[in-house]
């Protein structure tokens, strides 16, 4: 299997700020690579470099076998990009937006109109095709933006936080569309702030921090790196959280995470059901009020917390990158 995306030692600076610091990445054809990282980690800068929108300072990168700098013009006809913010003209109708994009790709008048209608049907926008986009919902705009990225039937697609700001139902709908594209053989590079999105869609996940890839693997491989299991508790009060933290301390195999405001506690443990029973006995002996307790495997959020030092909780995107 050939590699659709190759980045070697990419460096990009904005004055004194280093956005990319020797980033390496390889994405085989027909696979989905998820990019995870804190805000400002370099995800959006990586996408901009790989889609020819930004020139890197050092290193090299190829997409679909073409150099992102030397072959930029040729490459643009082979890739699609849908960003965090919908790149549609809200004064035009949905049909006019797609027709315009198709003509920019020199598909010709008739083929442009045909392609626009095909995509409107595929993304369930036929009923809104002749309405100005300014009347579209957020989910409709995002679907139209993705449709625009697919006009030229790209072999490599870049989605930069494609479902940010969507309600849960719209997000699930977009996931279905993305999975359909991948099933058709499209190579996809996906940046996302939703860990469940990467867990569901990505074949492999690269965790980026400070402009470098600090971990790479499948979701299960990354979770295995964190190791162990988690005792998760919901308690009656902040005082109960403090007491439970002390009582369960001897069972912990790593840092205990306490949320006193939310009355929750997460304790990294090993030992399966036995440690769960032991924990319940210790809490009961101290008359600590437990509303809920459970044992679970590590999640990608645990991976994020372990690798970057904080949870993946930012929701603003990377406007400053």
Structure description:
It is found in: Cell membrane. There is one protein chain. The chain is α/β, with parallel strands linked by helices and about 325 residues long. It contains 11 helices and 14 strands. A 6-stranded mixed sheet has the order 6-7-8-3-9-10, with helices on both faces. A hairpin with a 2-residue loop joins β4 (about 60-65) and β5. Residues about 315-320 have low confidence and may be disordered.
Features:
alpha/beta, Rossmann fold, Alpha-Beta Plaits, 14 strands, disordered C terminus
Percent range of helical residues: 25-40%
Count of domain modules: 2
What is the CATH first-level class name of the largest domain?
Alpha Beta
End-to-end distance, in Å?
33 Å
CATH topology of the largest domain: Rossmann fold
- Global shape: elongated
């Amino acid at each position: 299997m050939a590699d659709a995306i190759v980045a070697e030692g990419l460096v990009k600076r904005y004055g004194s700020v280093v956005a990319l610091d020797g980033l390496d990445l390889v994405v085989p054809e027909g696979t989905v690579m998820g990019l995870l990282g804190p805000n400002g980690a370099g995800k959006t800068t990586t996408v901009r470099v790989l889609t020819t929108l930004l020139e890197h300072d050092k290193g090299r990168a190829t997409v679909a076998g073409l150099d992102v700098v030397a072959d930029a013009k040729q490459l643009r006809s082979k890739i699609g990009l849908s960003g965090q913010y919908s790149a549609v003209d809200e004064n035009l109708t949905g049909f006019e937006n797609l027709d315009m994009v198709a003509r920019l790709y020199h598909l010709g008048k008739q083929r442009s109109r045909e392609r626009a209608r095909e995509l409107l049907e595929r993304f369930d926008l036929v009923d809104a095709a002749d309405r100005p986009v300014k009347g579209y919902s957020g989910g409709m705009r995002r679907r139209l933006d993705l449709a625009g990225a697919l006009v030229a039937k790209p072999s490599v697609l870049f989605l930069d936080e494609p479902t940010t700001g969507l309600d849960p139902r719209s997000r699930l709908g977009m996931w279905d569309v993305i999975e359909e594209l991948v099933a058709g053989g499209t190579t996809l590079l996906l940046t996302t702030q939703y860990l469940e999105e990467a867990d569901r869609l990505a074949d492999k996940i690269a965790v980026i921090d400070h402009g470098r890839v600090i971990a790479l693997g499948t979701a299960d491989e990354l979770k295995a790196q964190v190791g162990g299991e988690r005792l998760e508790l919901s308690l009656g009060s902040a005082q109960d959280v403090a007491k439970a933290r002390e009582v369960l301390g001897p069972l912990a195999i790593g840092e205990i995470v306490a949320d006193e405001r939310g009355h929750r506690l997460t304790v990294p443990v090993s030992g399966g059901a036995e440690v769960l029973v032991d924990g319940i006995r210790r809490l009961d002996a101290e008359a600590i009020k437990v509303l809920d307790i459970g044992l679970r495997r590590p999640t990608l959020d645990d991976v994020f917390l372990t690798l970057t030092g904080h949870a993946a909780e930012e929701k603003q995107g990377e406007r400053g990158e």
